[in-house]
Structure formats: structure tokens, C-alpha cells
Amino acid sequence: MSRAFRLAAGLVLALLLGMGAARAIETHRFPAPGAEAVSLNLHAATDVAAMRPLIEDFQATRPDVGITYTEYVTAELFDRMRVACEGAGGVDLVLSSSVDQLVKLVNDGCAEKLGLASTGLPRWTRWRDELFGFTFEPAVIVYNRDAVRPEDVRRTRAELIDLLRADPERYAGRIGTYDVTSSGIGYLFSAYDARAGAVFGRVMEALGRARVSLSCCTTDILDALSAGRLAIGYNLLGSYAVAAVRAGAPLRVVIPRDYTLVLSRAIFVPKRAPHTEAARAFVAYLLSARGQARARETSFAFGFDGNTVPEADGPALPPASAILRPIEISPELLAIQDRAKRARLLGDWRSAVGAPVEAGAR
């Protein structure tokens, strides 16, 4: 068994078995390997199992730094930081996949300039030398291999809609996606799906008729898919899905051929952070060649160069790919948080999909 496989297996066991049920705020401590001079306070809406290899590798370069990692769901982190940014807060780093929420915080003056404008990563992954994306994460369709016949695997949204219409009873109650009313990343993906025109309304309609199961978190949906309680997952984070496959889950990960949304989870250092120098060093590590290589080796399989991921059914996604739809970290994301637009999208979603259902409910 290769080292990379063991790393992936460990990651997914932690993600799928250790975190599936609890969604309370959790705190994890990473003591400094050497004599501790600094203790960073990192608040994140990212599973600690995914970040652990990166934190520990950073600490190999800075053995004087300890890290306290507080884990939230996206909406809780956003609410916490809106309050913290009004005062000192005691937070050194903020990390989330809901980049629209981070853009709102940065626009409100919450972030420190870091002098890291030349990162080597695509321009769309950073804003104002204050907010920095460090992962390349496509939104994918995931199928349980035992529940979905090979001939039923669909690779575009239109094909998926046709499948659900043609065989509604087979998949009723067995499709999962994010609850956009509680999941920041689910709301972000839906807001960008809505830009695709009529197909978004048809997707919502098809999910509603299929009695879609809704959840806050990728790991919950992947857990239900791996156990066979769900057959199909829509718009899930590809990095977590690939990690599940590498650990032996009976899943097929499909990169949509019509268009593929890609986000870069991002990080910033709040103003008045207690330990700005060490916090900046952690951000610089995540953006560095070493940090990027470690991320791809362990938790985040897809890279910015468009590498082919064997566990994913689909083309490589180089920067010039015609199907690539990156979610740019920019002021454009402020519109996603506009109250009127949010209310309209959530209203359309509720009308089509209905009340949230526990993932895997039949």
C-alpha cells in the first residue's frame, strides 16, 4: 500500500466516521514540535482531518508555532467573525470554503494586508493582498457504484435531469445535496448554478420531485453515499469525494461535462490579530510550492495546473478549459450576499425542493 493511499485512507476515515454525526463547534490543539514561542488561533470551516497534514507540515518548517484549530460550519464561522471583526477577537487566521462570506468580511475591513500579491497561483484566487485561495476544488456529481447502474451514470446536468424523470421511483429519496439555507458552500454553488439559465430551475425541479435529501456538509452526504443510503450526490466538493474513493468507498466521481464550477477555499489574517508574523507565515506556506504539493498529496487531489486525477471520471481542467467556471475571489461575490438576491434564491429553492430532509432519509 502506497504512502499516498494510507494518507488518503486516514483522511477519509476521520472525515466519514469521526465527524458524520456531530456538527457542534470543535476545538483541536496542535502543539508546537519544539519550544513553543507562538500559539496561533485558527478559526475554520474546513474539516480538521483535511487540514491536519498541512498544519503538521507547516510546523515542520516552524517548530516554534503551536496552533489551536476551532472548527465550525460555514454559517457559524461567518456569524462569529462578524462579531470578532468589530473588536480584537483574539483570532489569528480565518479559513473557509464559503469565499463569498470571506469577501464580505474583507470588504468590511476585517483583514490585514500581507504582502503576498505574487503567489504564483491564478489571479482569480486572491483579492486586495488580503484574501488568498489555496485549493482548486471542482463541484462534482458522485454516484454509488452499487446503487447506480453503469449505463445510468450521467455526465451533464441535462442528462441527470432526464435520468430522474425517466426512473423517478428508483432514485426517490436517494439523491443528496447541500441544504442551501444552512450551508454556505451550498448556497454559493447554487448562486453560480443559477447563472447557467433555465437548466438551474430544471435541476431544482428534478431534485424536488425526487425528494432530495439535504445536508449542511460534504462529509455527511459522502457518508450516506458510501453506506448506500444515497445513490447520487449533486454539486459536492471533488477533493473530499476523491479522498473517499482512494480509501475504498464504492463511489464514482464525475466531473460535469457541460460546465464545472471550481472554488478555491480561502484564508485571511484579521486586523489586530495577536500574532501577525506567524499567521502570515502560515498563509505563505499554503501558497508555496511545498504547501501546494503537500495539499495535493494528502487532502486536495486537484491542482491549479489541471492535473488528471485518476479517481475522477472526466477531463483534466487546465486554466484554458472550456468547461471551467472558476468562482473568482473578487468584489463580484458581494452580490451573492445581497439580501434581496439571497431571499429570492432561497425562496425559489424552497418552492422547488421543499423542507430539509436528513441525508439518507427514505
TrEMBL record:
<keyword id="KW-0732">Signal</keyword>
<feature type="signal peptide">
    <location>
        <begin position="1"/>
        <end position="24"/>
    </location>
</feature>
<dbReference type="GO" id="GO:0030288">
    <property type="term" value="C:outer membrane-bounded periplasmic space"/>
</dbReference>
<dbReference type="Pfam" id="PF13531">
    <property type="entry name" value="SBP_bac_11"/>
</dbReference>
<protein>
    <recommendedName>
        <fullName>ABC transporter substrate-binding protein</fullName>
    </recommendedName>
</protein>
